[in-house]
Amino acid sequence: MIWNDLKRPFLILAPMEGVTDVIFRQVVARAGRPDLFFTEFTNVSSYASEKGRANALERLEIAPTDSPIIAQIWGKNPEHFAETCEALEGLGFSGVDLNFGCPDKHVNKAGGGAAMIKTPDLAVECFRNAKKSTNLPVSIKTRLGWAKVEEYQGWLSTLLNEHPAALTVHLRTKKEMSKVDAHYELIPEIIKLRNSLSPETKLIINGDIKDKSAALKLHEKYPEIDGFMIGRGVFTNPYCFTDHTATREELMELLNYHLDLYEEKSKTTYLSYEPLKHFFKMYINNFPGASDLRAKLMETHSVSEARAIIES
Q1: What is d(CA 312, CA 302) in angstroms, rounded to the nearest whole number?
Q2: Which strand ranges, in their side-by-side order, compose the sheet holding 69-74?
Q3: 93 near 82, Cβ under 8 Å?
Q4: Which of 243, 249, 251, 196 shows the shortest CA–CA distance to 224?
Q5: Catalytic residue chosen out of the listed positions 85, 102, 126, 240
Q6: Which of 234, 266, 274, 298 lies 20 to 30 A from 155 at CA?
Q7: Per-residue DSSP letters for 208-274?
Q8: What is the distance between the alpha carbons of residues 89 and 285, in angstroms, rounded to a whole number?
């Protein structure tokens, strides 16, 4: 099982909607890959629908540099969880992760993501259906609670009683989003919960972890944590899973590699150019003229325009 094969403390790139697609994962792998990748969120009801399956499968595309990788899925229909998990087993994934923590209002309105915190019985049913439908290890990613931090005691206990292969806890509530500091003070209590209810479950911490160095410091303080998940930190430093400090030239080379992958993918799949602009700040920062260059790139409408500005 993949979770037992990883050397502690292992590092994971957090799944982020509109970010951690097959292109971006290849960019991170070029800079220095984490121990484990997750896909973007895939809606189980989309996969279970003849109309939505093509889009779902596109989200589940795997690149050669991705392995090992976990498929992350969300939804609220237990039967759809079962159908999707059964299919995932043959697609090259090392495991399945159920998203019970996404704070996106559209996901929550549909009853998925963090909304599962308000329907724990349904969450359990979805997990059980997923687990019985696949031989892949099934894990869960969630938050402390919906509105109050204290909810973590009952909510995490409910999940741990189901003995997931791994449990990733983003140390904030849905209501807090990312507006407050992650509640590191609760780590000792969460470790106690895991140890008492499901000691075999791997415990992963997410929230305000910027890079490998920060993860190792946390592990030194809390050695019973198995792994750490880095999300927004990758936007500050795409080399965050390594000890390497990138030069300006290396960052520009990585940007060009990102553009190459985008161009190649766009030959077979329609890709909007606008979302690509969100990544420019990763590569162009902290050097003289960076803000002006970034401003010019944000005005572009194609890769060829972007390349012309970069080369000039």
Answers
A1: 16
A2: 10-13, 227-230, 202-206, 166-170, 138-143, 95-100, 69-74, 37-43
A3: no
A4: 196
A5: 102
A6: 234
A7: S--SHHHHHHHHHH-TT--EEEESTHHHH-TTTTSS----HHHHHHHHHHHHHHHHHHHTTS---SG
A8: 41
Structure tokens at 247: 């030069």
Q: Which of 23, 284, 24, 238 is nearest to 300 (CA)?
A: 284
pTM of the complete model: 0.95
Quote the crossing angle between the two packed helices 248-266 and 22-32, to the nearest 10°.
Answer: 150
Digit-by-digit pLDDT tens for the chain (312 residues) are: 999 999 999 999 999 988 999 999 999 999 999 999 999 999 999 998 988 898 899 999 999 999 999 999 999 999 999 999 999 988 999 999 999 999 888 889 989 999 999 999 999 999 999 999 999 999 999 999 999 999 999 999 999 999 999 999 999 999 999 889 999 999 999 999 999 999 999 999 999 999 999 999 999 999 999 999 999 999 999 999 999 999 999 999 999 999 999 999 999 988 999 999 999 999 998 888 889 999 999 999 999 999 999 888
Is 240 catalytic? The answer is no
